[in-house]
From TrEMBL:
Transmembrane residue ranges: 26-46, 58-79, 100-125, 145-164, 176-197, 209-229, 257-278, 290-314, 321-341, 361-381, 393-412, 418-440
Compartments, record wording: Membrane
Keyword Membrane included in the entry's annotation: yes
This protein's record includes keyword Lipid metabolism: no
Matches recorded under InterPro entries: DinF-like, MATE_fam
Entry superkingdom: Bacteria
Membrane topology: Multi-pass membrane protein
Protein name: MATE family efflux transporter
Family: Belongs to the multi antimicrobial extrusion (MATE) (TC 2.A.66.1) family.
Keywords: Membrane, Transmembrane, Transmembrane helix
Amino acid sequence: MISSADRSTADASRAAVGVGELGRRLWSIALPVLPVLAAEPVYLLVDGIVVGRQGPQDLAALGVGALVLLVLGTQMNFLSYGTTARAARLHGAGRRSDAVAEGVQATWIALAVGAVVVAAVLALMGPLTAVLASDAEVAARASEWLRVAVWGIPLILIASAGHGWMRGVQRLRTPLVLVALGIGISTIGCVVFVPGLGPFPEFGLIASAWANLAGQFVMAGGFVVALVVEHSGSLRPRRAVIVSQLRMGVDLVIRTASFQITFAVATTAAAAAGVSSLGAHHLAQQLWSLYALVLDSVAISAQSLVGAALGAGLAAHGRALVRAVVLWSLGLGVVLALATVLLRDHIAAVLAGGPDVAGRLVVALIGMSVVVVPAAVVFGLDGVLLGAGDAAYLRTTTVIAALCGFLPVLLATRHFGWGLVGIWWGMGVFVMMRLIAVAIRVRGDRWMVLGSATPGGSSEREAAR
């Protein structure tokens, strides 16, 4: 056992590490994570291009089906974020085997939740696609695609759990290899079998679903194999750990739902301003999603390092990491803001199909350049608090910011016709409310729970069962 004197000495030594060194540690995790985060959007882009050549109805059907999977996958991201926080804390405490065991229990949750979601989607598929697609033929094709692709949901969740425990123990190369392999198989299958290249027959839209499923199967299988090889204990479900993970997961699901609801309302506000505003808003949201990937890579790095520091009982080192995360996130936000505002006309010209959309997109890009600076700090501090297992606080403050900040501005925007200007004012209010909340939190001590007890309520005795 480490004595209090030894721990104080180690803590002081870690705290003395400079911002530059801590920045290198942050980026040593963030850079391998970024391609993993970007892989799925890039594949979806390729998939859309290939299917789009089959005709507008197939592309619309793919859009409807992919939206269902995207929303469900996003809602279940607690399997990644929650598992990272819990595994990182145990890893920092020197309990690597228990950290890997978190991955075992998260995988059981992935299987159970995935089975329930598959059953629900299959039962509601007809009404669901009919609501999302105004055209009956598009809805029918979307159902055909989704009937195959829906079986990938448990595989997506298994991979999410795999990312979680591997990031927690800072094993970063394996997820990168598995994602590259899975996306590679999906891309090749889509490019070859959808149009029927060479000697292969043309399978059309349904080949996209099968290619997607094949890549997800390989990826999830790789994570399961890695888990079985790494884990030396029992693979049976442990109720106490699963309950603790689900308790934290509920907080993260509610937090994610608040994002999706407000962004959906933002889309309706853009639509009320006209077709050109809606098109510009869609393009701005895609660019914002790209920025979010970059910022999220730093947040995930913060999760892993902060969780490990707190698990090791290194309070001063945790504080030093907070300062480093703020500085590096702020710098990244400034770079993105300058690039956006200086290149706004060029970006709008490349992305937009006509002058009306381009003109409105410039307005959104100016708003984005302002908002991305505080948003970068929010992303970083979210990562800090998630690493500390403070998901309940993030849930509450995010919901309050969405309902009391973003949503009222969006409703006023729809009513008064403020268009994209109003939407980005709303985003600014949303981000600033969250920034104030997380800044107040990290200045205090309530988030800094030291030791190997995992976030979410499981005790060491329960974790050891």
